[in-house]
Structure formats: C-alpha cells, structure tokens
Fold this protein.
Amino acid sequence: MGHVEHDKLDISTTLCGARLPNATVIASGILGLTHEVMVRVAKAGAGAVTTKSCSLNPRPGYPNPVVLDWGGGLINAVGLSNPGVEVMTEEIQAAKELLAPLGVPIIASIFADTIYGFGNIARFISEASPDLIEVNISCPNIDHRYQHMFAADPYVAGQVTRHVKRNTDIPILVKLSPNVTSIAAIAEAVVEAGADGITAINSLGPGLILDIETRHPVLAHGPGGVSGPAVRPIAVRCVQAICRAVDVPVLAVGGVMSGRDVVEMILVGATAVGIGTGVHYRGIDVFRQVCRELRDYMRRHEYRSLDDFRGTAAMPSL
Amino acid sequence: MSLPETVRITEIRRETRSISTFVLDAEIAQSEPGQFIMLWLPGLDEKPMSIACPSPLSVVVDRVGPFTMALHERRVGSLVGWRGPYGRGFRLAEEGPALLVSGGCGVGPMVYLAARASEQGIPTTVALGARSTAALPCASEFQALGANLVLATDDGSDGYHGYVTDAVRELGLIDARPTVYACGPEPMLVAVHRLCLEARIGGQISVERYMKCGFGICGQCALDGLLVCQDGPVFDVQELDGVRDFGHAHRSATGRRLPLR
Ligand SMILES: Cc1cc2nc3c(=O)[nH]c(=O)nc-3n(C[C@H](O)[C@H](O)[C@H](O)COP(=O)(O)OP(=O)(O)OC[C@H]3O[C@@H](n4cnc5c(N)ncnc54)[C@H](O)[C@@H]3O)c2cc1C
Ligand SMILES: Cc1cc2nc3c(=O)[nH]c(=O)nc-3n(C[C@H](O)[C@H](O)[C@H](O)COP(=O)(O)O)c2cc1C
Ligand code: FES
C-alpha cells in the first residue's frame, strides 16, 4: 500500500485564478470586519478570508440580538452592518499586505440595494485590489425596501452579475440563496451573465424563533437566516445541483463543521469550502482541525490531491 | 445553545442617582468575576453587562443612554432576558494581596471579585473612584465583605481629592506589591496599565468594546487582533502592551474606528 505522508497531501486549490494554500475559506460575516482579525484567521489556518459584506455607505445594522445559537446552529439578522466601502477598502489593503507572506488571498464581499448600486460598489472595492469579489445577492434579511432578494430571480441575478462585471476586472463569485425553487437555474443565469464562479449557500430561510414568555421574536429584527449543522444537507444538495448545471468553480458554504463535511462538498464538485458557523462550534482553530481531518481521509483513500476525488459522488441508479 | 432566558426582576437597589443593582430570578451555575452576560429587553435591544453576583444573578447598571434608561424604568416583576456567561474573567492570583481599582460603572464585576477574594481569604483593598460622594456606588457592599476601602472623588467631596489612580499612587496602595484588578473608564485603565508596568506588578484589566454577538462570531468587538468578548473582556497587563487601540480607539455599531473621547 502506497503510504502517503501527511504533509505531502496537497489540499491546495485554485479558485477563479486565486491560489489557496488549503481549500478552507472563512465565510462572509464571520470575523471579517477588521484586518487584524482577518489576518489572525489566516494564521489560524484558513486558506482564504472573506470580508463582511460591504455597502457604499456605513450601516449600523439591526439592534441586538443579531445572532443566536438556537441548538441546531445559528440564526442571524445582523442587518448587513458594515463600515462602508471607504473604510473597508483600507481594511482590505491593510489585510492584503499582511496576508501576502502567508499566501492567503482575500475575497471582498459586496452588496447594494439596486442593480446599478452593485456596479458602483464593485468599482469602488476594486481599488483595494482584493483577489476575488463575492457578490452577495442572497442575504435573507432584507428590509421592505429591497422587496425581493436579487438571488430569487434568474433575470435580476443575471443583471446584477452583468453590472458588476462591467465595473471590475477582478474575478467575481456570485453568492446564491437556497431559498429558490431551482438554484441551478439561477446558477445558469449568472454564469451566462459572466460570473467567474459561484458561492453557495447563503443562510437559509429566514426562520423565526419566539421567546414564548414574552411572545417576542428572539432576534430584534424578527426573522433571521439559519446556518450551521441544520442546513448542511441542503447546502450539499444545492452545491451538487450547481456543479451539475454549470462549469465554473464553486465555493461551497453551509454547515461545514469537520473534514468529513469538506470531503462531502468536494465529492459533489466544490472547488473550495467555506466555514462560518463552524467557527462558533470549534473556535478559530476550526480551519486547522478541518484540514487535519481532510488529510486523514485522503491518506486512508490514497488521494494525493483534491482533484483525485472532486466530483466523484456516486449517483443513485434508481 | 444561547437563546436568552426570560426571567423576572426580583429586586432593584438604588446605588447612586444613576446606578442601580438589578437582581434577576436566575442563577449562573458556573462563572468567574469579570465575565459578562447579554441582557435583553425584548423589543428594544440587548447589551453586555458584567456579572455582579451569579446567584441570584445581579448586574449593576449605570444609566447612560437609551437601553440603560429603559432598564432603569423597569420595575420589580418586569421580564428581561439574559444569556451567558461569556468571556474570560479575572483570575485571582493566589499569592499576595489584591488591589481592586474601580471607576464609574466598572463597579459590578468588582463586587463579585471582592466576594470571591474574601471567600479565598485574600487581603483586599478596593480603590473606588467617582465624580463625587453621591456617585460612589456599592461602598457598603465592599465594607461588608471586609475589604479595605479607599475612596476618591474628582470634586474632593469624599476621600482622596482627585483621580482614583492618583490615589493608588500617592497613598502607597501598591507598596505591598498587590496584584491589581481594574474596571472602569478607559483613561483610568490606561493609567492602571502604566502603573503596573512601571511598578512591575501583575495586573488584569477589563476592557469594553461595542458588542453584537458576544461569543466570537461577528468580529464587532475587535481590539486590534483581540476579540474582547472571547479573549477578554479581562486582559493581562502584558497582553495589552503595544495594543494600538487600547486607550485610543473603539468601534461603533457600523464597525467604524473612532477615537475614544
Ligand atoms: C463586557 C462589558 C461589560 C459591561 N458591563 C457593564 C456593567 O456591569 N454595568 C454597566 O452599567 N455597563 C456595562 N457595560 C457597558 C454597557 O454595555 C453600556 O453602557 C450600554 O450598552 C449602553 O447602552 P445605552 O443604550 O444605554 O447607551 P448608548 O448611548 O447606546 O451608549 C453609551 C456607551 O455604551 C457603549 N455601548 C453601546 N452599545 C454597546 C454594546 N452593544 N456593546 C458595548 N458597548 C456599548 C457605547 O459605545 C457608548 O460608549 C459593559 C460593557 C461591556 C463591553
Ligand atoms: C452572523 C452571520 C453573519 C453573516 N453575514 C453575512 C454577510 O454579511 N454576507 C454574506 O454573504 N453572508 C453572510 N452570512 C452567511 C454565511 O456567510 C454563510 O453563507 C452561512 O452562514 C452558511 O454557512 P455556515 O453554516 O458555515 O455558517 C452570515 C452568517 C452569519 C451566521
Ligand atoms: S461581539 Fe461578536 S465577536 Fe465579539
């Protein structure tokens, strides 16, 4: 039996041209607010970092509670709080400098409230030269002004993608929502419109949890996006559907807690794997632990790189 | 799981014109002085508050803005929510005396710490600072715990006339080489930090930053690379050495960095 040493196992990946030393990525909205903390996450073993989704102007978000552990994962309605593109540009630039020696790329997440707004914010954020841009069209916690999630309609999702592409030369990932009848159809529309890759999934729902003593929702906003272990099977199914439908790299996010979960995402075709809620369950060290578990699997199966098993999930014959 | 538990307020004790102790119908099985809870007023907001007593769960709250004002309008019997405990608290040194330095609403965790020190038989001095005699909270609690109490007021209406950190220096409170534990306004904490480094004595400092999740997910409470909600709120003096934002900048709800006033 060809025994492969642990550190010879290649868990690096290339995501839309960006080289990741390992396939784990911290998901948007988790610790991605300031450059020092992002660098700390990279040093703790993340293969790439994603910023908190950033808008043109600063947003304070909703009052607290904005995120809670409900037992099966997290529920959140943060209200897309962020310091605005001007500050985020500085944070990205500062982070880039410190991440370069680690070989860890940075993904800038952006959002806007109009199709044109997405083009604007893409142009501004590009001045910070992030390695990739993630276009968040799928936040479930939108206020009434936004009416519908951009990710809910193939035409609108495509239009957003087109406007972003027109305003930047940096490769873009479009982040999709599981809350649609056919995520594959949305994926096809954004790829057709020029998306270089896809991130999926954003949090599920929104869901609702009440405090039955006071009858108030536990989140100040009321409904909130559901993430963590409870959503993983849905995320895996979405990633599989996307990988079958389109031919661009997929950053798979949703409920990943362990190396086992990373393997599952790669088996259905993911190029890289995001971790958000996993940071809550296993701490910032989750990236290193997950990579160790991933390597254990690869050694057992005598895989030397992720390409050896990517997309090899068996299809039911029934 | 960290959903807030809603419980009734069982007692409200007025400490000063703006500070009251709120006792809740709840108990925390295991906690350390310096740890905090997230206190929820359903339909309004939720804010970090230090544990002043774990059983029955109590917090000492200064009325400074919309949330704390709304809390002060609550009556015995009102429902409030809490979750926690969160963060890393004070770690009482087993050797030598303890010096607790407290300013303003920093008094809550100090009541808990003084109680713990008293249980462990650690000789304890509490240096308590405020604007005036009327604003000195919880003095009788400290006395009841057998602590040596040193008061300082900005206007000289009681005890030492001046800042509490100057009292510590001038009254020789560090001569016995105590371990220093501090909680209060950040300029006071900066002075305590400097004092500990200069005198080469151990110190632990409780820092406040804007919090959202309270459990290390949102990144809102970042103090340089430190997460105050999880790595803190209590830091060793050494850990704060060279921390750029300590004493200089905090972050608003948007995450914008602002100078400390
Ligand atoms: C770990 C920790 C422990 C604390 N313990 C106590 C305590 O025992 N007793 C007490 O009276 N106060 C305590 N505070 C401070 C308390 O959280 C604030 O006074 C309170 O949030 C103010 O809310 P407000 O709406 O009344 O006032 P605002 O006008 O909103 O704010 C007044 C001040 O409180 C700060 N603040 C507001 N919201 C938050 C937030 N979400 N997180 C942190 N700071 C905030 C602001 O930056 C400002 O400096 C603690 C803070 C932290 C971080
Ligand atoms: C507290 C919190 C904040 C989030 N903020 C964002 C955000 O700003 N932008 C975004 O695209 N996704 C955001 N998400 C969604 C995550 O990036 C991720 O898609 C989702 O949580 C599923 O992954 P997980 O189960 O690993 O957490 C947030 C999730 C959480 C829990
Ligand atoms: S308050 Fe969210 S990470 Fe500290």
Residues 97 and 122 of chain B are 6 Å apart (CA to CA).
